[in-house]
Write a structure and sequence with these properties.
The chain is mainly α and 256 residues long. It has helices at residues 2-29, 55-58, 62-67, 71-78, 117-125, 131-139, 141-144, 158-170, 183-201, 204-213, 215-220, 223-228.
């Protein structure tokens, strides 16, 4: 029995030794040194930040966006706000104040809601939620009113904000009239209109020298006939003081 056991143990041990020896031999033959820095470093140029940071400079004024705003899309966008705000008339305050008749209302004045001190001070400085303030606040609440309790990061798409504000404006017994879409472009066109006379007046100084130069050809005019009527060279023997005969002078009569 012990002999059989020794045979089995020797076979197992021999197999292990053979396996270890084979592994060491393979490592010695196929050894690959490890790089100091694992992997490959791929140099890639850093992409510029999205233009969203400068969206305020490139956005159209809220008055222009409201002209094409969709209240239907605004109603769909408002559903994302429903967990914190109630849009119904007489609705209860939730995490945020009720939003019925918000457009045109004084900030921080909804009855029964405990506003942050920052919003109260903002309301004291700004008498109403106009379209411009709402647009800026919805885009970046904490940036427009630092210290507000509103934890929303902001609605970045400018047309989505216009749709939402247009819908909120309808949630009132007396919706405010939308601002004229051409108000901003008219103000920008004013400087161009004032600059027009300056452009028209520019050629005036050039006209004066032209007027002064006009008499020059008139003074030179008499010189042309004189050049054309210059007499031919006198024949030999003709006195130098003798006047040249003109076509109109008759030839002298022969001596009788």
């Amino acid at each position: 029995m012990s002999l059989e056991f020794n045979k089995v143990a020797a076979a197992v041990l021999g197999t292990l030794v053979f396996g270890m020896g084979t592994g060491l031999l393979a490592d010695a033959i196929y050894h690959v040194p490890e790089p100091e820095t694992p992997g490959f470093e791929v140099a890639a140029a850093e992409e510029a930040a999205p233009a969203e940071a400068d969206a305020g400079a490139a956005e159209e004024p809220i008055a222009v966006r409201l002209a094409s705003a969709s209240t239907e899309n605004g109603m769909k966008a408002s559903k994302a706000c429903g967990s914190c705000h109630d849009f119904e008339k007489g609705g209860a305050n939730k995490t945020g104040p009720g939003l019925w008749a918000t457009v045109g209302r004084k900030p921080g004045s909804h009855e029964g809601y405990a506003y942050s001190q920052a919003m109260v001070e903002f309301g004291n400085a700004n008498p109403a939620w106009d379209f411009e303030h709402l647009d800026a606040f919805i885009a970046n609440p904490k940036g427009h009113v630092p210290g507000t309790k509103m934890g929303y990061a902001g609605l970045k798409k400018s047309q989505d904000r216009a749709d939402l504000i247009a819908y909120m404006n309808t949630l009132s017994d007396s919706p405010l009239p939308l601002p004229a879409a051409d108000a901003a472009p008219a103000a920008e066109a004013a400087p161009a209109a004032e600059a027009a006379p300056a452009a028209d007046a520019a050629p005036a100084p050039e006209a004066a020298p032209a007027a002064e130069a006009a008499p020059a050809p008139a003074e030179a005019a008499p010189a042309a006939p004189a050049t054309g009527e210059a007499p031919a060279a006198p024949a030999e023997g003709t006195p130098a003081e003798a006047p040249a005969a003109t076509p109109e002078q008759p030839a002298p009569a022969p001596a009788q």
